[in-house]
Amino acid sequence: MTELELIIDLHKNSERQGPGSEGDTLKALEILNLNTDKNFKTADIGCGSGGQTISLAKNLKGQIIAVDLFPEFLNELHEKAKKLGLDDKILTLEKSMDALPFHKEELDLIWSEGAIYNIGFENGLKKWKDYLKKGGFLVVSEITWITPSRPNEIEEFWNVEYPEIDTAAHKIKQLENNGYTLVGYFYLNQDSWVKNYYQPMQERFKDFLKRNNNSGTARKVVEDHQAEIDLYQKFKDYYSYGFYIARKNE
Length: 250
Ligand code: SAH
Prior knowledge:
Elements: H1 3-11, H2 22-32, E1 42-45, H3 51-59, E2 64-68, H4 71-83, E3 90-94, E4 107-112, H5 121-129, E5 132-145, H6 152-161, E6 166-167, H7 168-177, E7 180-187, H8 190-211, H9 216-235, E8 239-248
Parallel strand pairs: 1-2, 1-4, 2-3, 4-5, 5-6
Antiparallel strand pairs: 5-8, 7-8
The structure holds S-adenosyl-L-homocysteine (SAH).
S-adenosyl-L-homocysteine is lined by residues 16-18, 20, 46-48, 51-52, 67-70, 73, 96-98, 113-115, 118.
């Protein structure tokens, strides 16, 4: 298997492929304060195996189009949805988030947890806006500095990994500059990283290595993920995922 295939293998059969929790998804929904009697057409972009898609489907009327690049995750979501009797509400779609098939002003709501960074936050805001109705909503979580300054080591790491990392003030300005109004903001607490994402991942390391014959590439994948966890433990007071809840201007 290639390194990418191994990364997908490590993240398969897990609740989430990034930091987050059902509580966070519901909190963002609550801030949106939508009329739950209305039918909403929602896209969940970079849905992974659909932890948040299921919560959305349980709490919203209308169809959710769950988009991801990798069929492994989409198949998992489809099976989960079937078991819960939600498969008529959740349509899975294998597409890249930078080439979506939606029409102009087709969607009421775009949701994307821990995924917009794949095409860059500001690029994503711009690209996806056309698909939203006027007055429609965009809810995205994005890596964010939570203090005005931080140690060089972590600053340099993120500036290489994802130079668009910034403070919430800056990200909110980007939303405003691109035709959105902020409805609400909060950032994920440490449990959403550790209990919901890193710990379950660490518990999968052993089986993952075993089923991949402890290959050099598999060991590298584990080491890289462990390094990311160590870095988080060391610098968790300086960054998190910010949840940006915004409305497209009329
Ligand atoms: N929203 C999920 C998954 C977040 S991980 C959760 O919070 O648990 C990021 C997801 O983006 C992964 O599932 C990955 O497969 C997907 N992804 C990466 N690049 C993509 C692209 N270009 N288009 C669509 N999805 C992409």
